[in-house]
Amino acid sequence: MRLFIFLSFFFVYTFAIRPGPVIQASKGAVWPKPQQQEVSETYYLIRPHSFTFEAPVNIGCPSFLDDALTRYWTIIATSITSKLEETPEANFWELDDNFLGYLETLTITLLGECPNENILPELHDNENYTLTVDSEGAFLESETIWGVLRGLETFSQLIYAEQDTLMINTTKIVDFPRFPHRGFLLDTSRHFEPVRIILQMLDAMAYNKLNVFHWHITDDHSFPYKSRTYHELSDKGAYHPVSGVYEQSDVMKIIEYARVRGIRVIPEFDTPGHTRSWGVAHPELLTSCFTDNVANGELGPMDPTKDTTYDFINNLFTEIVDVFPDSYFHIGGDEVEFDCWKSNPDVSNFMKQNNFSTYEQLESYFIQHVVDILDNLSSKYLVWEEVFVNGVELPNSTVVHVWKDNGLSTLNNVIKAGKYGLYSSCWYLSVLHSGSDWDAFYKCEPGLLLHTEEEKKLLLGGEACMWGEYVNEFSVIPRVWPRASAVAERLWSDENVVDISDAQIRLEEHACRMNKRGIAAQPPNGPGMCF
Amino acid sequence: MRLFIFLSFFFVYTFAIRPGPVIQASKGAVWPKPQQQEVSETYYLIRPHSFTFEAPVNIGCPSFLDDALTRYWTIIATSITSKLEETPEANFWELDDNFLGYLETLTITLLGECPNENILPELHDNENYTLTVDSEGAFLESETIWGVLRGLETFSQLIYAEQDTLMINTTKIVDFPRFPHRGFLLDTSRHFEPVRIILQMLDAMAYNKLNVFHWHITDDHSFPYKSRTYHELSDKGAYHPVSGVYEQSDVMKIIEYARVRGIRVIPEFDTPGHTRSWGVAHPELLTSCFTDNVANGELGPMDPTKDTTYDFINNLFTEIVDVFPDSYFHIGGDEVEFDCWKSNPDVSNFMKQNNFSTYEQLESYFIQHVVDILDNLSSKYLVWEEVFVNGVELPNSTVVHVWKDNGLSTLNNVIKAGKYGLYSSCWYLSVLHSGSDWDAFYKCEPGLLLHTEEEKKLLLGGEACMWGEYVNEFSVIPRVWPRASAVAERLWSDENVVDISDAQIRLEEHACRMNKRGIAAQPPNGPGMCF
């Protein structure tokens, strides 16, 4: 039967040099791998011109789900490859016992309540769904619209092109994410990334069931966020006051584009370090550095000794909490360099007055103020691991973002202390070796040191991080995809899904799938071509 | 004077964290650096609407130079940045003593003979030119049209945008290449690269004064060249017989696009290894591999024992020499795996009959036949270093392409043996570390072990090599550029041009210049933004 060739999920690759692609892509395999899936050899054909989603009236709430149906209809209808084999074998299915007929409908049932039109994705949302394609037809069920979105993505991935025909195998899928926080960090400070690139990233995130866009929006080199309160921050601190900024309307567009895809947008305004760009417009926020007790003109981290620093942060963060609707805010707190603080006599005096004997205490003093500001704003927060390690008092809702080497041990300490943990130590997309570079991401297991169910619940998930030093708008998408897909599968699929050979075959298909959908993913596995 | 700020050629970068780009780009600096250049602070403005090239009638020969003038006029006219500073300082030049007026013309003089319309770029072409911008105007002189092309590129790079104005400083340039063979290798077998990508590569090569496109067109994984003689090679051996092949018309287009930019196209049809894709249509060309004296179905390198192998190669290479007009042909000869030959009893018998005691002798026997075929076709050739190391008898016109580690010593041996050497050992673009990864290319000096003028003359230059395992059409351009620019400067500029700090500043500008001209170059130096 030809289908045995098509469904080469378990193709074994030997290292002998063979012509053709080094990894033969799967057909209709789902990425990330569902928690439970049975596939059989019987199949339907799909004719886009007559295929529809059957959604009862209750699926119209919120109405943005209708847009999702249109989106996925388009993806399915355009997934017939334009790179056809020379001569299609006419109607190969006609004498095939496995052919079940034409699938005309996916019936979608929202089991839970009809949500408000303005519903936001949140931490711990239910994203579960079941998807059945059997002799009765195709059925997607979920308690929530988020689960419906995840199920639609899966349904679209089950469909594959064979010659000029779309096919889907019968299958039964019960699926849910392993972790509730599956993130992608993009740094838009080291290089400015145009809005269209961010929207493409959000598309790709949805194709990989990632659900948190961690927007590392500012850093030392530029301040591209155009604030309503302090527009001078980007007027002077962006690379360019017009071409290098995110207007309020851009931010709105990004948040909404993410929301309707079930993706949270968590902004990061890193302090007290990584703030050099703030000081172009507001040098008074930063510490003056001294050489031999004389101010040398350089500026360091934020000045923790002045009340005016906290007033400014309070004003700005009040705006940010209003602009970004997510209940979490990433307040940074990483890599504070103490040299400048050490050099400044006012800082030294301040430490004496407050009986601080270490600069970690001073850093904690600063962060404690920021944390208090956010508590007053009723916003929860994420912090980089240094904040926890340095002993800042944090409420248990805080998420500690672990990023340094030896992260598993730090993560263990975070969770032992009853805080939420988020992991990134092994998922830095800036780390390169061969150019392919996804297998180490795939093999990394964040829960290795966690044993009890309670501990495991405190590990919220992780994030693939794309720091911006060496990527611009031309290189960032192929640098990220499909490498971040490896992280996406680790965070969604069961922890026993660790077979690299199986992953290679599915990722080969998935990278090509992304290409077909307009995402400029690079090749994951070596020689090959997408069809 | 404002110009002091503009012309920050020798800006010293300190490692303190400063807002803004980590490297401040130069303005109007030339890449690769000219052999001799004096720049002064006086400048002209250029108004694209009235600027023209003044070329005496003799410049119309060949007429493709007119196309080059149009191309460069467009580049210049569109090089005003669209990312303007907010409020241009109105007419900043009006009270500036350094302002010389408006430059209306570049006068071009072809000192040598008017060449034939069909002239081809060749090894050892004269590419010298002089370019003068002084109070009398702007003047480009060259003996050859190739020198005129290089000078036009330089002229276009001297012009920079300041606010909404184009400027050019007075300067005197005497320029010529250090090496005659400055190449870029692209592997179109591991991944197929669309013709539009190759044309973009040729554009970028011209912007970097590279003059040889080494087209590694076939390899184990696919055979994308559609042969007139043996079209089944690509019908069966390409990734796809339609979407994954270069038609004859594509090849013609690429050769012509290169030619009018002064770029030679050298095809490589690698044998006897790296030929697995040939065997899909013609398995009889390859050696059958055996396990325990039984053919195991695997195929190895070409079968060196059969006359029919050489007949086939003769027929194909007769076509290739006709299709590709360059007088050189790269015949490969690298990485021949002996295991399959060793396993095959016919090969063993053949070796006994011919008194071969080593497989290197057998390889030499094969290559000797290929070399004889090319000698009969009056084509010169390049070979990978193994061919030389294994002792194949080669005429002194042969170019030995050194690529392995310890290449300087091999290169020295090549040249001591009186052969031409070409260097690539340190210029593999697939080697990655930080993502930026051009400084090691820049620091690599191929002539280190060569002392006499005679030895130095035998070193023809080098090539930056982009092997195709991990790059597709979406990632290959940012992977190559501006990293190959580092190689381009090493091969064009004086060997004393080794200052990385100076190079960083100019490369920052050059990468942005390429972006502006439509080349999706990645950032070379870390945080920054192009204007």
UniProtKB/TrEMBL annotation, chains A, B:
One of its GO terms (molecular function) is beta-N-acetylhexosaminidase activity. The active site is at residue 335. InterPro entries: Beta_hexosaminidase_sua/sub, GH, Glyco_hydro_20_cat, Hex-like_dom2, HEX_eukaryotic_N. Pfam families: Glyco_hydro_20 (PF00728), Glycohydro_20b2 (PF14845). Residues 179-494 form the Glycoside hydrolase family 20 catalytic domain. It catalyses: Hydrolysis of terminal non-reducing N-acetyl-D-hexosamine residues in N-acetyl-beta-D-hexosaminides. Belongs to the glycosyl hydrolase 20 family. This is Beta-hexosaminidase. It comes from Tribolium castaneum (Red flour beetle). The lineage of its organism: Eukaryota, Metazoa, Ecdysozoa, Arthropoda, Hexapoda.
